[in-house]
Write a structure and sequence with these properties.
elongated, 363 residues, Pdz3 Domain, six-stranded antiparallel β-sheet
Length: 363
């Protein structure tokens, strides 16, 4: 059930994204001849007065299609309600509406979480958690014996206090100690021991040991004191998640080699969502909001085959006073689609091989 819940969340996010494009076009009376969730052959379909609605076999996205792209369309090419015949602003609204829809949905999900489950407050505990060890065969932390699930209580005999400053101090100490030995007081179960290691130098010149870190805390929920607090707290959480997501993408761009392994595809996303749903169904609110924001930011990137790529073409058209030649646009789009599909398949294969049940098959 938890897996189905995670898949349903992804399906809803894709549906909302495509619905944003669809409604923005329909609101402006622009012709739409297709609304599909998924790719490939249609499993279910319904032909409306103008639009073919379809649920397709490969649930890795969706699309809204327009008669402009259909050589067999009976609509005259000079029809003012074709998307390609509309002003740049009208087309930009249609293209960006999917991203806007996902951002609105994320905010509403967070508001819904506050209204139904309560406001999450953090009770900090001493120490810093190690949820994951990166590059487990090669990282400094792995070689020194640090494992996922450990708690670091002190660095160089200085205790890590019960606050967010504890993780900040630990990260700063590691980053400032490239090629210098540091001592970590680590607790695993009931055992407390001191581990000495030497951080290596990362591409940014700072020390690293190859671990993910997170504050040691407990989540406490309380119901809002005032009705309007539901919306203000939801907005603050939306802003926090959005800033963290943008920061993550910036890290991927500026430090690609070390962060690329953390990029997750739909298989890994479903696995994480299923685990969250199994532990606490309420976590699906935040999981869905996080993925919705990620989907919005990914789609707004200026890459071919994404909404941001289409907006880039419109910006170039606005600057030139005319669009790029159709052949050039098609070549760029086709190249982008091939690259994105290829990258997507590689990520899916990688994430599948990391699943616990898959690894057990080869033990």
């Amino acid at each position: 059930m938890s897996v189905l819940a995670a898949i349903a969340v992804l399906g809803i996010l894709i549906f909302v994204h495509e619905l944003g494009h669809f409604l923005a076009a329909r609101y402006q009376k622009i012709h739409v001849n297709g609304f599909s969730i998924g790719f490939g052959p249609a499993l279910l379909k319904y032909q409306g007065a103008e639009t073919l609605y379809a649920l397709r076999a490969i649930p890795l996205g969706g699309f809204v299609s327009f008669p402009d792209e259909d050589p067999d369309s009976e609509i005259p090419p000079d029809d003012p309600n074709l998307l390609s015949n509309r002003p740049i602003l009208d087309r930009a609204i249609v293209i960006s509406a999917g991203v806007i829809a996902n951002l609105i949905l994320a905010y509403l999900l967070l508001v819904g979480q506050v209204a139904t489950i309560g406001i999450q407050e953090i009770n900090y505990l001493p120490g810093v958690l190690v949820p994951q060890v990166l590059n487990e065969q090669e990282s400094v932390a792995a070689k020194a014996g640090i494992q996922a699930g450990d708690t670091i209580f002190a660095v160089n005999d200085r205790d890590l206090e019960a606050s967010k400053q504890g993780i900040d101090f630990l990260m700063t100490t590691i980053q400032d100690s490239a090629n210098k030995s540091i001592d970590l007081t680590v607790k695993r179960g009931e055992e407390m021991k001191t581990i000495s290691l030497i951080p290596t130098v990362g591409q940014d010149g700072k020390g690293k040991i190859g671990v993910m870190l997170q504050p040691n805390n407990q989540i406490i929920r309380r119901h809002p004191d005032r009705f309007w607090e539901i919306f203000t707290v939801g907005a603050k959480e939306f802003d926090r998640i959005t800033m963290l997501t943008i920061g993550g993408f910036w890290q991927l761009i500026t430090n690609f080699q070390e962060t690329a392994q953390q990029v997750a595809g739909p298989i890994a996303i479903v696995a994480v969502g299923a685990e969250l749903a199994q532990n606490d169904l309420a976590n699906l609110f935040q999981f869905a909001a996080l993925i919705s924001i990620n989907l919005a930011i990914i789609n707004i990137l200026p890459l071919p085959a994404l909404d941001g790529g289409q907006l880039t073409f419109l910006a170039i058209e606005g600057l030139r006073g005319k669009p790029l030649p159709t052949r050039i646009q098609e070549n760029i789009m086709q190249t982008g689609i091939v690259l994105l599909l290829g990258l997507g398949m590689l990520i899916i294969i990688r994430d599948t091989t990391r699943l616990e049940f898959f690894q057990q098959l080869f033990q």
